[in-house]
C-alpha cells in the first residue's frame, strides 16, 4: 500500500518500529484489504445472503410456506399431485422440504424449455402454486459463484479471492500480538479509531476458523475451474434416463422408496430425479459425512421393481470426496438450521471485516493529515473525510471493480426480464 510516512501512525494492530517482518505483513494485509475492498465486500455479502437464500424465498413467496401437521404425504403422492396440476410440464426433480414450514419443491420444464418451481405441501400433498425459476436462491448463487458471467470467466475470477483471503488470515496472526487474548476484549469507545480498531480485531479473532474454511474451499473451487476437479460422481444407469413420455405411477414410486429404504435403511431420501414412467433416481443423506445428497444415490426400475445401481459416498476416493465436501463446508448446508445460521453470522462478520478494515485506513490517513495541518500552525485544520481517503486509496483498482459490478447489474437486469 502506497502511503506517506505521516499516513502510517502507530496502532496496536501495527508492528512496532523496527519490526521489519511484521511491517511487511502489515503492509500486505493493508494493501489487500484496501485494493480489493469493493470486490471482496461484495462477494462476502452475497455469499452471506446465499446461506439463507431459501429463507428469503420463503418470505417472498407464499407458495413456499406451509403449516406442519402430523399427517405426511408420500413421495408418490406429491409426484402425482404435481403432474396432475401441470400435465403439460415435464417433472425433472422433486426435493424434500428445506425445513418443517417449507413446501417440497419440484423443478418443472415448460414446453418452451423454460423452468419453473412448483411447490407442494408435504403434509397434505396439495400443490400450493408455482414460482419463477430465477428466485433469490438462484440470483444469489449465480452472483456469488460467477457474477452472472460465463462460468469459465466468472468462477475463476471469484474463487481467486481465496488466495488474498488466505494471505490476510496469515498476516493477521503476525500483526496482532497475542491475538488469542482478543476473544473477550470488548471494544473501547473513547475515540472512533480505537473503537473501530477494536471492533475489527474482535470480529477478526472470532472469524479466524471461518476465514480458513472459506479460503480453503474457495481455493478448491479455483482448482476445479482451472481443470483440477474430480469430475462427476459415478454414473448410475437408468432404464429410461431423462424420458418422461407418461406420468410416473404414484404407487410404483412409493414402492420404490420403501424397497430402497429396506435395502439401505441408513439412506434418508431427500430427492427424486430423472422421473419417468419407467425409472427414477433417488438420492439423500446416508452414512457418509459432509457430502452432497447426490453422493448417495440409487437408480430404480419402476416396472421391474429392482435397483439398477447404487452410489455410496463412503466408496469415493479422496479426490472425489474433497469435491463433494466443498459445498457443505462453504455454505454450511450440513447440520440443519443451527449450522446454517452460524455460517450466516460468520459471513456477516467477514463482511464487517472488509468494511471496518478500509474504514480504519481512512481514519489513519485522516488523523495523519490533521496532525500535519496542526504542525504547520493551522489552528483550524481542514476536516478530512475517512471515506474520501478510502476512495483515494483504492486508486486505479476502483476502475476495475466498479465496471465489473456494473456488468453484473446489467446481466442481472437481463435475467430478471427474461424470467
From TrEMBL:
Keywords, alphabetical: Membrane, Transmembrane, Transmembrane helix
InterPro entries per UniProt: PepSY-ass_TM
Positions of transmembrane segments: 32-52, 153-176, 202-223, 341-361, 399-418
Matching Pfam families: PepSY_TM
The UniProt record lists the keyword Phosphoprotein: no
Presence of the UniProt keyword Transmembrane helix in the record: yes
PANTHER family linked: IRON-REGULATED INNER MEMBRANE PROTEIN-RELATED, PEPSY DOMAIN-CONTAINING PROTEIN
Name of this chain's protein: Iron-regulated membrane protein
Organism for this UniProt entry: Luteimonas terrae
Lineage, highest ranks first: Bacteria, Pseudomonadati, Pseudomonadota, Gammaproteobacteria, Lysobacterales
Amino acid at each position: 500500500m502506497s502511503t506517506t510516512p505521516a499516513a502510517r501512525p502507530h496502532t496496536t494492530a501495527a508492528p512496532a518500529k523496527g519490526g521489519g517482518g511484521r511491517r511487511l505483513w502489515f503492509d500486505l494485509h493493508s494493501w489487500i484489504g484496501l485494493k480489493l475492498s469493493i470486490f471482496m465486500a461484495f462477494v462476502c455479502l452475497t455469499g452471506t445472503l446465499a446461506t439463507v437464500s431459501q429463507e428469503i424465498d420463503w418470505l417472498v413467496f407464499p407458495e413456499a410456506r406451509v403449516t406442519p401437521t402430523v399427517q405426511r404425504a408420500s413421495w408418490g403422492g406429491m409426484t402425482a399431485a404435481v403432474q396432475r396440476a401441470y400435465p403439460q410440464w415435464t417433472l425433472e426433480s422433486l426435493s424434500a422440504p428445506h425445513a418443517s414450514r417449507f413446501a417440497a419443491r419440484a423443478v418443472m420444464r415448460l414446453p418452451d424449455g423454460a423452468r419453473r418451481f412448483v411447490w407442494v405441501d408435504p403434509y397434505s400433498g396439495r400443490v400450493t402454486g408455482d414460482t419463477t425459476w430465477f428466485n433469490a436462491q438462484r440470483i444469489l448463487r449465480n452472483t456469488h459463484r460467477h457474477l452472472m458471467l460465463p462460468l469459465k470467466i466468472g468462477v475463476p475470477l471469484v474463487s481467486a479471492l481465496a488466495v488474498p483471503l488466505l494471505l490476510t488470515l496469515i498476516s493477521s496472526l503476525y500483526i496482532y500480538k497475542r491475538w488469542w487474548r482478543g476473544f473477550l476484549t470488548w471494544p473501547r469507545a473513547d475515540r472512533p479509531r480505537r473503537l473501530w480498531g477494536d471492533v475489527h480485531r474482535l470480529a477478526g479473532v472470532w472469524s479466524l476458523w471461518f476465514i480458513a474454511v472459506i479460503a480453503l474451499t474457495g481455493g478448491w473451487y479455483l482448482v476445479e475451474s482451472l481443470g483440477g476437479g474430480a469430475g462427476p460422481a459415478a454414473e448410475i444407469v437408468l432404464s429410461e434416463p431423462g424420458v418422461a413420455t407418461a406420468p410416473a405411477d404414484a404407487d410404483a414410486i412409493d414402492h420404490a422408496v420403501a424397497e430402497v429404504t429396506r435395502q439401505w435403511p441408513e439412506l434418508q431420501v431427500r430427492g427424486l430425479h430423472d422421473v419417468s414412467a419407467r425409472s427414477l433416481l433417488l438420492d439423500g443423506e446416508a452414512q457418509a459425512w459432509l457430502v452432497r445428497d447426490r453422493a448417495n444415490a440409487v437408480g430404480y426400475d419402476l416396472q421391474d421393481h429392482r435397483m439398477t445401481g447404487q452410489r455410496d459416498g463412503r466408496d469415493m476416493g479422496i479426490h472425489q470426496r474433497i469435491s463433494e465436501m466443498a459445498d457443505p463446508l462453504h455454505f454450511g448446508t450440513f447440520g440443519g438450521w443451527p449450522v446454517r445460521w452460524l455460517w450466516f453470522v460468520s459471513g456477516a462478520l467477514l463482511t464487517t471485516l472488509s468494511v471496518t478494515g478500509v474504514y480504519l485506513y481512512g481514519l489513519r490517513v485522516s488523523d495523519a493529515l490533521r496532525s500535519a495541518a496542526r504542525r504547520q500552525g493551522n489552528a483550524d485544520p481542514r476536516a478530512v473525510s475517512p471515506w474520501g481517503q478510502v476512495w483515494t486509496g483504492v486508486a486505479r483498482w476502483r476502475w476495475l471493480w466498479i465496471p465489473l459490478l456494473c456488468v453484473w447489474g446489467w446481466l442481472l437486469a437481463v435475467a430478471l426480464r427474461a424470467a
